[in-house]
Amino acid sequence: MYRKPDWEAALAAYLEPLRLVPFAWGTHDCCTFAGGAVLAMTGVDPMAEFRGRYSTELGAKRALRRIGRGTLVATLDAKFEAVAASLAQRGDVVMIDGLLAICWGAFAIAVGREDDREGLIRIDRHQWHDARAWRVAYGA
């Protein structure tokens, strides 16, 4: 799975309609959001096996045990090359305090809530605590 030449435009086009879509387990949560972003950039959905398989937090945990590698971190480690969060580049998958997001340079984009607005939120790099990252590879 490699980024397409037009990955930046494809990622921006993926993000735009999601700006105000609220969080929903199994359809618009951190796992499906990050998987959709990777799909937009590469044409491959790394989370396809999880789609439609859960609708609650408990269901998501069960799906990770049943379909994945037991945890979200272990599942991502099996799908991507892990890199230090400080080395995350635009388009890479990052996990911040257990929440999956997409690196956008000086910040990450994730599904969440800011004040009374739900949808995509920005998390500045200086707020990345307990962060991990995985590289979405460029073409060989």
TrEMBL record:
Residues 3-136 form the DUF6950 domain. It comes from the Bacteria. InterPro entries: DUF6950. It comes from Sphingomonas yabuuchiae. This is DUF6950 domain-containing protein.
